[in-house]
From TrEMBL:
Keywords, in A-Z order: ATP-binding, Magnesium, Membrane, Metal-binding, Nucleotide-binding, Translocase, Transmembrane, Transmembrane helix
Reported cofactor(s): Mg(2+)
Subcellular location(s) per record: Membrane
Protein family membership: Belongs to the cation transport ATPase (P-type) (TC 3.A.3) family. Type IV subfamily.
Its EC number(s): 7.6.2.1
Protein name, entry field: Phospholipid-transporting ATPase
Keyword RNA-binding: no
Gene3D superfamilies on file: Calcium-transporting ATPase, cytoplasmic domain N, HAD superfamily/HAD-like
One of the GO biological process terms: phospholipid translocation
NCBIfam families: ATPase-Plipid, ATPase_P-type
Lineage: Eukaryota, Metazoa, Spiralia, Lophotrochozoa, Mollusca
Membrane-traversing stretches: 364-382, 394-414, 444-466, 478-500, 512-532, 544-570
Pfam families cross-referenced by the UniProt entry: Cation_ATPase (PF13246), PhoLip_ATPase_C (PF16212)
Organism of provenance: Mytilus coruscus (Sea mussel)
Annotated residues for binding of Mg(2+): 304, 308
Length: 642
């Protein structure tokens, strides 16, 4: 029968499949018996107990009984978790094999067994029963029993499998670095394997100085080593050399608790940090150490296995990969995706877009309310501080609910201030939004100052125009309090919506229609309110009756409103123009660099003839035979990932 063995452990899967090639076929569990065909002969084993894997213990075992009635404990796990418990077998040779495999970056496991006597089994059964039924400290008691049983082992050998990197891992890590994100690798793997994988993943690079803090079991020795590395890291740093720190779980036990601050300083001097042989709890502790540092960075943890859950929960942002190691990481994460390379798109593109959307949304809410309600404050000075409202209660109530809500709502979902390809091609753009840059005091003040300016223009503009003996109507009627409020209000509503339009770069259909829908909806709603005589029970004072129609049907008032909106939005228009000119300049500079590189690549011996750095934009124009949109250039851009 054809079958596929499924397991959350890649080693197990590889092992079972490899055995199959040697005609040792595992058929699964049937009636409580494990069925295995050995070279054509079926054998059955009774599965008595499973001592489950846990990443702190780093090993697991099964207890089985064969057809002859012999009972064995079969154990597999990390070499550090098993070899110390071995009393028989080729211990040294196995260790040598494991180390050799690890230097190739392979994922290793050591296999061992123990034959159990009747006495052992009875003792174990009793202890296990006791631990499993215990109401207090069950986990610890179980760990004690497992520890007791997984002893006096006979080592059988080691397995090694290639733990393939997912596609585009080096490219993703490089992009994150360029985006100013510090990448740390925290793994349960063996030191050699982890270092090797770090090189192949581009986490470590040739030329980096490796600083190793490994296999230190004493706190004082650990402090010494950290201090020593600190000095050499500082020297390297001042000489412009890159440091790469490698630290293992054993050392971290002392370093984290006793010398956390200096360890953190050391880590800050390193461009890459690799923590290996970590338990899940230690992974979380490392995240905590960084999170609570002086500059309180924002942390994100990404993982695919159950052993990553605690760090995913500890970090500000938890990211889960839907991998082969089960769904625990995904279930505990804030965001989940299927491949590591999507991290790039998620952070650099969606992260960037959403940050801009959210920060604009927050600033815009403050701004539009300042622009609106400050007029009421000004009005107090002209109404003898009488608490007379400038705006009708309908206007007051619906300002945030309908008059200025829909466009900003859709903006915060769909806005794309830059082209997607630009954000992905230039990871360094991400630096512009790190550390909550758009919600700093500077931006907050800028937005609110504009809000204040708008309120000044709207209120005093309308007030001065209505002042004196001027009438806007043919019959010579003068303006009243409610009309003043209405003109200020409608001017304000139009201006804050146009202001959002000036902030918008991506005029997608939803955003466009949100403006039309909001406009039609608000006009309809106001007409209904002001045009009908409502029963007293619903609206008792209709001071505003018919006023809206008088207002919107008066040409001179419209002229006045348009003039005020233009005056109020002048600074915004100026800011938008400057930003756009800057953007276009940057884009054209980037295109020139690309073209220069393209030409330099095409020209024979270009390196020696025209140094790239010296090709300034006007010079590149001399060589340009292709337009910026040429297919060759586009494919070059894709290939070089610029
Ligand atoms: N199912 C398993 N059975 C026995 N031993 C295992 C099993 N899974 C992992 N191990 C051993 O325990 C060690 C630690 O496992 P852990 O899951 O914490 O880390 P990892 O899978 O090696 O790396 P990562 O942290 O990157 O997932 C592994 O290196 C391996 O030697
Ligand atoms: Mg794992």
């Amino acid at each position: 029968m054809e079958y596929e063995y499924q397991s959350s452990s890649p080693d197990e899967k590889a092992f079972v499949e490899a055995c199959r090639r040697y005609a040792i076929i595992f058929h699964g569990l049937k009636d409580g018996m494990l069925e295995i065909t050995f070279k054509g002969k079926m054998k059955r084993y009774q599965q008595l107990h499973v001592l489950e894997f846990d990443p702190t213990r780093k090993r697991m075992s099964v207890i089985i009984k064969n057809e002859e009635g012999e009972v064995y404990l079969l154990c597999k796990g990390a070499e550090s978790a098993i070899l110390d418990r071995v009393i028989e077998g080729e211990k040294q040779i196995t260790l040598q094999h494991v180390n050799e495999f690890a230097t190739y970056g392979l994922r290793t496991l050591v296999l061992a067994q123990r034959k159990l006597s009747e006495k052992d089994i009875a003792l174990f059964d009793a202890k296990l029963q006791d631990a499993r039924t215990s109401l207090q400290n069950r986990e610890e008691k179980l760990a004690e029993v497992f520890d007791f049983m997984e002893n006096e082992l006979h080592v059988l050998g080691a397995t090694a499998i290639e733990d393939k990197l997912q596609e585009d891992v080096p490219k993703t890590i490089e992009s994150l670095r360029m985006a100013g994100i510090k990448v740390w690798v925290l793994t349960g793997d063996k030191e050699e394997t982890a270092v090797n994988i770090s090189y192949s993943a581009g986490h470590f690079k040739q030329g980096m100085t490796e600083l190793r803090l490994t296999k230190i079991t004493d706190s004082i020795e650990c402090a010494e080593a950290v201090r020593r590395h600190m000095i050499s890291a500082e020297n390297n740093f001042s000489q412009g050399k890159h440091n790469a720190l490698i630290i293992d779980g054993t050392t971290l036990t002392h370093a984290l608790y006793d010398h956390g601050d200096i360890l953190r300083d050391l880590c800050h001097l390193c461009v890459a940090v690799l923590c290996c042989r970590m338990s899940p709890l230690q992974k979380a502790e490392v995240v905590k150490l960084i999170k609570n540092g002086k500059d309180a960075p924002v942390t994100a943890a990404i993982g695919d296995g159950a052993n990553d859950v605690s760090m995913i929960q500890e970090a500000h942002v938890g990211l889960g990969i839907m991998g082969k190691e089960g769904r625990q990481a995904v279930r505990n994460s804030d965001y989940a995706f299927s491949k590591f390379k999507f991290l790039n798109r998620m952070l650099l593109l969606h992260g960037h877009f959403f940050y801009i959307r959210i920060s604009t949304l927050v600033n815009y809410f403050f701004y539009k309310n300042v622009a609106f309600i400050t007029a009421q404050l000004f009005y107090m000075f002209f109404s003898a501080f009488s608490q007379q409202s400038l705006f009708d209660s309908f206007y007051l109530m619906f300002y945030n609910i309908t008059f200025t809500s829909l466009p900003i709502f859709l903006y915060s979902l769909f806005e794309q201030h830059t082209k997607q390809s630009t954000l992905l091609e230039q990871p360094q753009l991400y630096k512009k939004i790190t550390r909550n840059r758009k919600l700093t005091k500077k931006y907050f003040i800028q937005w609110n100052a504009l809000g204040l300016w708008h309120a000044v223009v709207f209120f005093f503009g309308v007030f001065l125009m209505f002042d004196g003996d001027i009438t806007f109507y043919k019959d010579g009627k003068m303006m009243g309090n409610w009309m003043l409020g209405s003109v200020v209000y409608i001017t304000c509503v139009l201006a804050v919506n146009i202001k959002l339009g000036l902030e918008t770069y991506y005029w997608s259909a939803p955003i466009f229609f949100s403006y039309i829908f909001a406009f039609v909806g608000n006009v309809a709603m106001t007409s209904l309110y002001t045009g009908l005589l409502w029963p007293d029970l619903i609206i008792s004072h209709q001071d505003f009756f018919h006023l809206f129609f008088v207002h919107v049907s008066c040409g001179p008032i419209w002229l006045c409103m348009i003039l005020l909106i233009v005056i109020a939005l002048l600074p915004d228009i100026l800011i938008r123009c400057i930003t756009d000119i800057q953007k276009t300049k940057n884009d054209s500079r980037r295109n020139h660099i690309l073209i220069a590189k393209y030409i330099a690549m095409k020209m024979p011996h270009s390196d020696s003839t025209i140094p790239l750095k010296e090709l300034s934009p006007p010079e590149t124009e001399k060589f340009v035979t292709t337009s910026d949109d040429s297919p060759q250039l586009k494919s070059f851009v894709q290939k070089t990932n610029l």
